[in-house]
Write a structure and sequence with these properties.
Elements (H helix, E strand, L loop, with lengths): L1 E10 L2 E10 L4 E4 L5 E10 L2 E10 L7 E10 L6 E4 L3 E2 L5 E2 L21 E2 L11 E7 L7 E6 L4 E7 L2 E2 L2 E2 L1 E7 L4 E8 L6 E7 L6 E8 L12 E12 L3 H11 L14 H15 L20 E2 L9 H7 L3 H16 L10 E3 L2 E3 L10 E3 H20 L5 H21 L5 E3 L4 E4 L7 H12 L3 H17 L19 H18 L2 H15 L14 H4 L8 E2 L7 E2 L8 H10 L3 H12 L49 H11 L3 E4 L4 E4 L4 E7 L3 E7 L6 E8 L16 E5 L4 E7 L1
Parallel strand pairs: 9-10, 29-33
Antiparallel strand pairs: 1-2, 1-6, 3-4, 4-5, 5-20, 6-17, 7-8, 7-12, 11-16, 12-13, 13-20, 14-15, 16-17, 18-19, 21-22, 22-23, 24-25, 25-26, 27-28, 29-30, 31-32, 32-35, 33-34
Length: 740
C-alpha cells in the first residue's frame, strides 16, 4: 500500500493544477512547491491501523480555490475486490447501469433469464467492463465517512476513515480505479470536490426527464485560504489480514466510530409520538371502504392501498395490539377488506388499489396483476403476527385462515417452480417477470411464522430452503438488493433488515444454530446502512434549527440517497431478540440508536415541522427525508418535504414492540430506549427498583419490559401486553419496583 498527499486548484469543479507528494505514515513534514503551504503529519498507532493528523499551513494567500487530500493507493488491483462506501456503494455498485426515468422499471427481454445481471439506474458505480472508472461522493452521501475494500484473493481488507467535516467544510471521498495499471486509490479530501460530475436526482437538462443521473454537472469547488491559516485533516487507515468478507463488515462497523461518536439526547417520548400518529390515523387514514390507507391523499391511488412495504396491512397491527376500541375495530376491518376485496384467485394480494380499481406495480403501463413480491412477503409476515394475537386473545380467526393459507401456498408454488421468488411477478400466470433480487426475502420469516401458526412443516421447509438461497446468492456476497419497487436492483437497507428479521424469525422457529450464524452476518451488513454520527447540518437549515440528530437514521438505498427515520418498515425488534439469543449488549445499543432517533421527526401540534414547500407538516405526520446529501440539490440539505410517509408506521411499530425501558434479570442488564432517564437503585431476586425521570417537555406513558432472556417463550410474536405502563409528567421523577 502506498500513501500520498495532494493539493489541487480548481476552476469551478474542474481541476486547474495539482501536486502530489508520496509519504510514509510517520511523523514528518512535507512542503509543496506549487502551492503556498506545507503539511505536518503526526501519527498515533491504533489496533490494526494508524491515526493521522495532517495540518496544512499556508504561508501565502491562495490565488485559486483549492483542496487538500490524503490518498491510500492499492497495487495489484483486481475488479473482483469488494468496494464499500457505507450506505452508498456495495461491491462497487458494479452492475449494469441504464439511464431510466423515475420510477424505473427494467424488464429483461423475453429470451433472457430471470437471473441475468442486476440492473441499476445511473447512480455512482464502478464500471463492469471499462478499465478506468471513478466514484466521488461527499461525506453526507454515506452513513459513515469511510471507504475501503476487501480482497478475497488475499483475504485482506483496508479502510480509509475520516471525519465528515473538517473545519467548516464537508469532506469528500473518491475511489479511482485504473485497471490498466492495476491500481486503485481511496482518497479523503477537504473541502470535498466531486470533479466535473456529481450525482443528481431530478429534472435533467438533457431532456430525458425526471431521473437519477450520475453524470450531472458538479456544483462543488475548492476554498480560498489566507496566509497564516491552518487546516487539520484527520484520517485513520486500517488494514486487516486473514479475514473473510463477513469479518470485513464487522471490522468496518467496529472502526467507523473511531473519530466521531454521536451524543445522547432527549426530544419526544415514544408515547407522545405514537399518540400523535395514532390520532392522525383515525382522522386521515381510515377510508370509507373500511381499511387503513398508506397515505392521506386518496385521489392518488399509490396513497390508498399498497400491500406491505410502506404500510398496507402493517399499520393495522400496532393499533390492534394497543387499542381496545375504535382503532382495534378498524384494524380488524382492514384485515377483512384485504382478504375479501384485494385477494386474487391465485392467493396473491394485489399490490396496489384505489377507489375501486387495481393497479400494477413497476409502472403505470403494467397490467394490474404485476406485483412487487416484497409487498406480499411483508403483508404475510404482519398478518400472521395479527392472527397470533387474535388467537392468543380468544378472537375468532376462522374467516382469515383459509385466505392467509392461500397466500402462503402461492409463495410455496412460486418457489417450487423457480427456486427463487424474483422481484416482480404476474400473479395471474405466476411467472417471474423480473428476477435477481433479494427483495422478497421477508418471505423467509413469513413462512417460518406460518409454519408455527398452521403447524405446517412444508412452510418451514420452504422457509429454510429460501433462507439458504438468499444466503448463498446475497448475504454471502455482501449485497442485498431490490426491496423498494423503484430502484431496479440497486443495493438497499430494506432488503438487509428484512433479511435480518427473517433469519431471526427462522432461528426462533427452528432453533437451528446455522440461522443464528446467518443472522449475525446479516446484521453486520444491515448496520452499515445506519448513520453512525451526527451530521452537522447547514446553520440556516430546518434540521439545524430543530437540533436534529442524524445518528440512528437509516439510509434508504444506493439510488435514493437520503437517510430516513427508522427502518422501512420495521421496529427493529429483531435486534432485541438477537440480544436475547446471544447476550451481546451491542445489539441493544444499536437498537437504541435506531429507535431513539425516530420521535424527533414526528411533527407535533406544539412543534410543527417546516418543509421546503414553506408549509408545516400537520400533527402526526412524518416525512421520510433526513437530508445529509445534496442528491436533490444543495438547497435540500437539512430540509424536509411535505407529505405523510411510511416512518409513521415504523414509529407505531416501535411503541408496541420496543419497550421504553428493558430489564433483563438473567444478566442484570438495563437498557433505556425511550426519551427518559432510568437507573437501577437496587436489584432483588425477583424484582428491581428503578428511578425514572422524564427530561422532556411532554407527559408520557413509558413501557417497561421485565425479561429473562434465557426464557425462550417470554418474548416471541407479541409481548406488548407483558409490558408495564408507567405515567410520567414532564420533569417528573419517580421510584418504581419492576417485578420479574
Amino acid at each position: 500500500m502506498r500513501y500520498s498527499l495532494m493539493c489541487k486548484s480548481f476552476t469551478g469543479s474542474e481541476v486547474l493544477d495539482f501536486e502530489k507528494i508520496s509519504v510514509n505514515l510517520e511523523n514528518n513534514q512535507y512542503t509543496f512547491s506549487q502551492f503556498p503551504c506545507r503539511a505536518s503529519m503526526t501519527t498515533q498507532t491504533l489496533k490494526h491501523g494508524k491515526r493521522l493528523d495532517i495540518t496544512l499551513s499556508f504561508h501565502e494567500d491562495t490565488t485559486y480555490p483549492m483542496n487538500f487530500s490524503f490518498s491510500m493507493e492499492a497495487e495489484q488491483w483486481e475488479k473482483s475486490n469488494y468496494v464499500l462506501m457505507p450506505g452508498a456503494v456495495y461491491n462497487g455498485n458494479r452492475f449494469v447501469s441504464v439511464p431510466l426515468e423515475y420510477p424505473p422499471y427494467y424488464q429483461p427481454a423475453e429470451n433472457c433469464s430471470f437471473s441475468d445481471a442486476e440492473v441499476i439506474t445511473s447512480i455512482p458505480h464502478l464500471d463492469i467492463e471499462k478499465m478506468q472508472s471513478q466514484i466521488s461522493l461527499l461525506s453526507g452521501d454515506m452513513t459513515s465517512p469511510l471507504c475501503g475494500f476487501y480482497d478475497s484473493n488475499g483475504q485482506s481488507g483496508s479502510v480509509l476513515l475520516g471525519e465528515h467535516q473538517c473545519g467548516s467544510y464537508y469532506s469528500g471521498f473518491t475511489i479511482n480505479e485504473n485497471q490498466t495499471d492495476r491500481e486503485a486509490s481511496f482518497v479523503l479530501s477537504v473541502p470535498g470536490v466531486r470533479e466535473t460530475n456529481a450525482y443528481f436526482f431530478g429534472d435533467q437538462n438533457d431532456g430525458l426527464g425526471f431521473r437519477p443521473d450520475a453524470s450531472a454537472p458538479s456544483q462543488d469547488t475548492g476554498a480560498f485560504f489566507k496566509q497564516g491559516e491552518t487546516l487539520t485533516l484527520t484520517a485513520c487507515v486500517f488494514h486487516w489480514q486473514q479475514i473473510t468478507l463477513p469479518d470485513f463488515f464487522k471490522l468496518v462497523n467496529d472502526a467507523k466510530t473511531t473519530l466521531e461518536n454521536p451524543t445522547n439526547f432527549y426530544s419526544v417520548p415514544f408515547y407522545k409520538a405514537y399518540t400523535s400518529i395514532k390520532d392522525k390515523y383515525q382522522k386521515e387514514n381510515f377510508t370509507e371502504e373500511g381499511y387503513y390507507s398508506v397515505g392521506t391523499d386518496w385521489n392518488i391511488h399509490q396513497q390508498c392501498w399498497q400491500a406491505g412495504w410502506i404500510g398496507g396491512g402493517i399499520n393495522s397491527y400496532p393499533l390492534l395490539l394497543e387499542d381496545s376500541s375504535e382503532a382495534r375495530q378498524r384494524a380488524l376491518s382492514t384485515l377483512r377488506f384485504i382478504f375479501s376485496r384485494l385477494q386474487h384467485p391465485s392467493g396473491w394480494v394485489f399490490g396496489m388499489y384505489g377507489n375501486g380499481k387495481f393497479y400494477g406495480d413497476g409502472g403505470d403501463s403494467n397490467p394490474d396483476t404485476i406485483l412487487l413480491v416484497r409487498k406480499d412477503a411483508d403483508l404475510l409476515y404482519f398478518v400472521l403476527k395479527q392472527l397470533f394475537w387474535l388467537s392468543d386473545n380468544d378472537h375468532s380467526t376462522i374467516e382469515f385462515e383459509q385466505p392467509v393459507k392461500s397466500l402462503c401456498d402461492a409463495f410455496v408454488r412460486l418457489f417450487h417452480k423457480y427456486g427463487q421468488l424474483g422481484q416482480f411477478i404476474d400473479i395471474a400466470t405466476e411467472e417471474i417477470v423480473v428476477g435477481n433480487s433479494a427483495g422478497a426475502c421477508m418471505a423467509v420469516g413469513a413462512l417460518a411464522l406460518a409454519s408455527e401458526y398452521f403447524q405446517c412443516t412444508e412452510y418451514r421447509d420452504v422457509a429454510e430452503q429460501l433462507g439458504e438461497y438468499y444466503y448463498n446468492n446475497y448475504v454471502k456476497k455482501g449485497m442485498l438488493n431490490g426491496c423498494p419497487g423503484e430502484i431496479c436492483q440497486a443495493p438497499d437497507s430494506e432488503a438487509a433488515f428484512a433479511m435480518l428479521e427473517s433469519y431471526v424469525q427462522l432461528y426462533e422457529t427452528t432453533r437451528k444454530s446455522i440461522w443464528l450464524s446467518y443472522v449475525e452476518e446479516t446484521y453486520e451488513i444491515a448496520m452499515t446502512w445506519v448513520m453512525s454520527y451526527d451530521f452537522v447540518f447547514p446553520a440556516h437549515s430546518t434540521a439545524a434549527k430543530r437540533g436534529v440528530h442524524s445518528s440512528g437514521t437509516v439510509f434508504a438505498n444506493a439510488q435514493n440517497k437520503h437517510s430516513a427515520p427508522g427502518i422501512c418498515t420495521l421496529s427493529g425488534n429483531c435486534l432485541l431478540k438477537l440480544y436475547r439469543f446471544t447476550g451481546n449488549a451491542k445489539y441493544l445499543h444499536d437498537l437504541h440508536a435506531i429507535t431513539h432517533s425516530l420521535p424527533q421527526f414526528v411533527s407535533l401540534a406544539e412543534d410543527p415541522e417546516l418543509t421546503l414547500e414553506k408549509k408545516y407538516l400537520p400533527a402526526g405526520y412524518m416525512n421520510e427525508r433526513v437530508q445529509t446529501s445534496d442528491w436533490e440539490g444543495k438547497e435540500t440539505v437539512g430540509e424536509f418535504l411535505y407529505g405523510s410517509n411510511w416512518p409513521e408506521v415504523s414509529m407505531l411499530l416501535t411503541f408496541v414492540e420496543i419497550p421504553g425501558v428493558y430489564v433483563d434479570f438473567t444478566s442484570r442488564t438495563l437498557q433505556v430506549f425511550d426519551h427518559v432517564e432510568c437507573l437501577v437503585t437496587q436489584w432483588n431476586p425477583d424484582s428491581v427498583c428503578l428511578e425514572m425521570y422524564n427530561p422532556t417537555a411532554y407527559s408520557t406513558v413509558v413501557t417497561l419490559l421485565a425479561d429473562e432472556r434465557t426464557d425462550a417463550q417470554r418474548v416471541t410474536h407479541n409481548y406488548f401486553e407483558k409490558m408495564k405502563h408507567v405515567s410520567l409528567t414532564a420533569g417528573q421523577r419517580i421510584q418504581i419496583e419492576l417485578k420479574k
